[in-house]
Amino acid sequence: MIIKRINHLGIVPKDLNQTKKFFTEVLGLKEEGNEVVAEQKVIVDFIRCDAARLELLSPTSEESPIAKFLETRGAGIQHVALEVDNLDNWIEYLKKNNIRLIDEKPRYGAHNTRIAFVHPHSTGGVLVELVEEQSK
């Protein structure tokens, strides 16, 4: 089992347009479109940064975890996503080591991925997403 790389940073902006303009027009990073992830009640705007992405997260509903994040914490980095080689093995490994998971089974993520979140209580306060890329 290996962690391949940082896949993306999940960022919750206060002003999506201002944030996109900064990363694309000011810094010159490439915008790669967006995707609605209905299960998570979020729109994800993708910005490419070399081998990783920035994901700008916007809620589609007041019940969205992203809406709750904005309300309680304000804008900022919401999570770090680590790309793994075998998500099922990683989930089992973490469970065996008494690591608290938000997702004990993989679920669908943006960009045709399988994902699972590790609870911040087990990571020292950082929300960690494990990502497994799928064949397109």
Descriptive notes:
- With 136 residues, the protein is an alpha+beta fold.
- It has one domain: 2,3-Dihydroxybiphenyl 1,2-Dioxygenase, domain 1 (Roll), CATH 3.10.180.
- It is built from three helices and eight strands, in the order E-H-E-E-E-H-E-H-E-E-E.
- It has an eight-stranded mixed β-sheet, sandwiched between helices.
- Strand 6 and strand 7 form a beta hairpin.
- The two termini are 22 Å apart.
Number of helices: 3
Globally, the shape reads globular
Mean pLDDT: 94
Overall structural class, as computed from helix and strand content, comes to: alpha+beta
Family: Belongs to the methylmalonyl-CoA epimerase family.
GO molecular function: metal ion binding; methylmalonyl-CoA epimerase activity
GO biological process, one term: L-methylmalonyl-CoA metabolic process
Domain VOC: 5-133
